[in-house]
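Input/output pair, single chain:
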Amino acid sequence: MSTLIPIPKLGQSEETVKIEKWRVKEGDKIKKGDILFEVETDKAVLEVESQFEGTLLKIIIPAGKEVPVMATAAVIGNPGEEIPKIDAPKTIEKKTDVKKPADVKAAAAPAKSAEPQAVSHAGAPVQQASYAPAPPDFKAKPSPRARKFAEDYLINLDNVPGSGGEIGRVTEADVKRYLDASGYSKKLITPSAFNLAKREKLALLEIEGTGENSRVTIADVKATASEKPRAFSTMRKVIAKRLTESKQKIPHFYVTVSIDMSEVSKKRKALKDQGISMSVNLFIIKAVALALKEFPMLNAETDGLSVKYKSKVNIGVAVSLESGLVVPVVRNTDKKALDEIQSEVSELAEKARTGKLQPDEMKGGTFTISNMGMLNVENFSAIINPGETAILAVSSAMPTPVVRDGQVVIRDMMKITVSADHRAVDGSDAAKFANAVKLKLESVEFLNREV
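Output:
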């Protein structure tokens, strides 16, 4: 009997996913544990393993489709077995604020010539008429003849005002009037550039020509095509949504202190001499975790009407990827030794970079650290993750002249900035927290105790 393979629900908030790539094909023998396909969630690309054995009889959902979770992705069974009839799930179309280019079909290419020549794509003789641009919210409703004419001449119908009997309807005559009034007949373009513009679905009047007599060349078309809006990845959409929500709803305020990292540097050197390598970030994570126990209002969550203090300290460590930012979580950070934290952070970061980070490994954070110390950054402020009351931005340690015992000396100074939610955290609390982190990182006693 055949088995239906669903797309699993990989996180509590996941309602839709996209199959990024199939790792098997119809007819393949499948064993338990084999990777069937990769799915893109709002946080990562994850591998889905088979829980069954048999032959992959049919793939129901092709790669690249956004579908609801738990939809049937494939059928596994015995060779020759009858495949049950399964309708492919409806593709989820996500709305976007990005305005798409005009929807045009490729028209027949102009006659080829031995060499690219400047040609004018003027329409048939048209009546002179004044042209007024369409209002910003105008939505053209072109007639079939108008659409075909616009396709042939690479016209963006959104820019053509309509005069048809139906309100807002754009007719072929409207397009021809627009051609004449807009100076289209004077536009020069090589045949090869025209064909490329059709393939890229570009409007000819929106391409700036840089050739002789402002002629549009292939290079001009490629430059314009490179500026076409590109839809955000699923991860980037979520980042944009969450951080916009945070800045709009959470009243941020910021506190910055400078930390003398000399003692941390000495400790790291001493450990290195013993064959032990520990990053600066480990000391920061542990100092922050212990400081949060002293200032629980920064290890909390608020909706603006009440506050919930978290009993556990789970530090989210921001990891930058090409596709965006993910925040794996180190749980019970305050109770772990530095070597435990180092092992866990290294493993989570590697998973993040290879796209194998699981949704559960990004849940449950109570406070986040964003460290750009390796990027030669003097200072920055981070945006609070929704569901938390604060975040810490860590900058680079830089040689800086400071006064010690009445003398100017050079020390490696590192600035940290606390971004806090003023609904739950007062300025004095954020300042005391920042200085508690500073005190620990400058304390020989703390460093010796924790290593």
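The mean pLDDT is 84. Residues 234-249 form the longest helix (16 residues).
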